[in-house]
Specification:
It is built from five helices and no strands. By secondary structure, it is mainly α. The relative contact order is 0.03. Among the domains are: about 55-95; about 100-134, no CATH class.
Length: about 130
């Protein structure tokens, strides 16, 4: 039987009761420049792309080979990330152990390294003459 009673839902707090004001110019100007650095290269790619010759470019055997290789590598990287990354993230989020800070720093390191340095490190570790690649 249904009984009328108090709702168990909590009221959502108001974000702000004061009128919204604009951001200061010293914040908006660098933000706009930063957005331009992100958007302009994408616009340049769209404007300068050879759209009329795209079908014949995409049917080239070398392009198809490169696309297949990219898809295979992306799929393999996703699988490895799921198999190794998710358990590592769980351990870092749930467990406390000596050296936790060092492990977190090592996991974060690839995010702050330039891609060239990361690629060189991977080559030195797993390449034909690398530590593990031999």
């Amino acid at each position: 039987m249904w009984r009328a009673g108090r709702s168990t839902r909590r009221a959502q707090p108001a974000l702000s009761d004061s009128p919204r004001r604009g951001a200061p110019l010293f914040i908006v100007a660098p933000a706009a420049i930063g957005l331009a650095f992100l958007v302009l290269p994408l616009v340049a790619l769209l404007v300068r792309a050879p759209w009329t010759g795209l079908p014949e470019l995409l049917s080239d055997s070398q392009v198809l080979t490169a696309l297949r290789l990219s898809l295979e590598c992306a799929t393999a990287a996703t699988i490895v990330s799921l198999i190794l990354g998710v358990p590592l993230a769980w351990v870092l989020a749930r467990l406390r152990f000596p050296g936790l800070g060092l492990v977190r720093a090592l996991v974060t390191l690839p995010l702050v390294l330039p891609p060239v340095v990361g690629g060189l490190a991977l080559l030195l570790a797993f390449g034909r003459n690398g530590i593990i690649g031999r």
